[in-house]
Amino acid sequence: MSHPLRVAVIGAGPAGVYAADILTKSETPTEVDLFDRMPTPYGLVRYGVAPDHPRIKGIVNALHKVLEKPGIRFLGHVEYGVDCKLEDLRRYYDAVLFATGAADDRNLGIPGSDLPGSHGASEFISFYDGHPDAPRDWNLDARNVAVLGAGNVALDIGRVLAKQADDLLGTEIPDNVHRALSESRVTDVHVFARRGPAQTKFTPLELRELDHEPNTELIVHPEGFEIDEAGEEAMRTNNQVKSVVKTLQDWALRDPVGNTARRLHFHFLRRPVEILGEDGVNGLRTEVMELTGDGSVRGTGEYETFDVQSVYRAVGYLSSALPDVPFDHGSGTIPHDGGRVLDLDGDHIPGVYTTGWIKRGPVGLIGHTKGDALETVNNLLADTENLPEPVEPDRDAILRVLDERGVPYTTWEGWNRLDAHERALGADRGRERLKVVERDEMVRISREEADV
After folding, report:
1. Predicted model pTM
2. Helix, strand or coil for residue 53?
3. Cα separations (Å) of 180 from 188, 286, 446?
4. CB within 8 A of 435, min separation 6: which ones?
5. pLDDT tens digits, 147-205
6. Taking the alpha carbons of 34, 39, 41, 43 in that order, is the dihedral positive or negative?
7. What distance in Å separates the CA atoms of residue 43 and residue 65, rounded to the nearest whole number?
8. Beta bridge partners of residue 305, listed in sequence order
9. pLDDT tens digits for 16-39?
10. How far is CA 431 from CA 97, 420, 425, 436, 440, in A?
11. Largest CA distance in the chain
12. CB neighbour class for 92 (10 Å; exposed up to 12, middle 13-18, buried from 19)
């Protein structure tokens, strides 16, 4: 090869950035261009993590260092399949690696899912994270809300809905989101899990964080709080499961407080079967489930109806098919062998690879994408001698193509200038918000002293 290995990575979230990092750390001289539909990098970390999770948002610092590397170039606001296609990229790159993630909501598949007031998790998350495609307003008139799911996404949504808006002032919450949450009428948030507490996908830290909300009471309902033989075994062999169950048990044993602004309820062994309503949500019908001893559940034929006026479906994400790339609609993934994309006959398409959630499905935490990217990159590097030569190896040729097509792409340098501007605005807003909080706190203290 007479030129550095040139790789186009489609998707500038953690999966794509980790792949770029591994490529440029290899012994093979490599140049990587990271393309993203959004004008900004970081993908899920920027638009998929709750604003009150700065620990996870801190991953941005690590991703930032990777994007600073001279062998990596960020090209934002470039939509694959619209602004450039696979045949274009293969003219200018030795390999194309798809890391577009999973941004759609998996279909719940029950009647009433499409009623007004029934929302997919990604819709609400995009709203409170300020995604450019999300609406600027959100209706929070419902007093009783159901969240369907037993993973960290359900916890995030439940926590944000049950939280007081001003408790988010020290975070990156957009002003329009703060305003919407300030006007929220929500009093009770009900999280429904189809299986038992030992079968949830909550992680201990994210679960325990709920107990740090001073104005929210946590209520674990005893009905359905059961552990079978498989659950007992999981608790003996898995410290995370043991910690999650212990935390939930402690909450279940608490005496009710009754004087908090909001309540966050947990219901186990309840399978949603229908979202009720005609012009909007006015209830949720669930089937009571029972454990079978091996960690699975079965229906009992007994049903319960809960009075809710809104439903949030946190039952999993789903990747979208990409133009000119094979796609398994059942699993929502690109068919592959160790990251090598396969055609309909099961043969590797030379020079085409995949990593991240569109490769393995929306499972695992952000950090799990590193090992996933390593597998793909190792196979890509092993194929180097057999990769098809690009027609135009000039690194800036793709920029000329985008210019000719009138694509207003963003660069890493431009993003840094915008980021600095956003941070300055955020600091100013933060100082103003702090003044408001301090003022309100002084008023509260003065009133308490007057009462004494």
Report:
1. 0.85
2. coil
3. 17, 29, 29
4. none
5. 999 999 999 999 999 999 998 887 778 899 999 999 999 999 999 999 999 999 999 99
6. negative
7. 16
8. 285
9. 999 999 999 999 999 999 999 999
10. 43, 17, 10, 9, 14
11. 83
12. buried
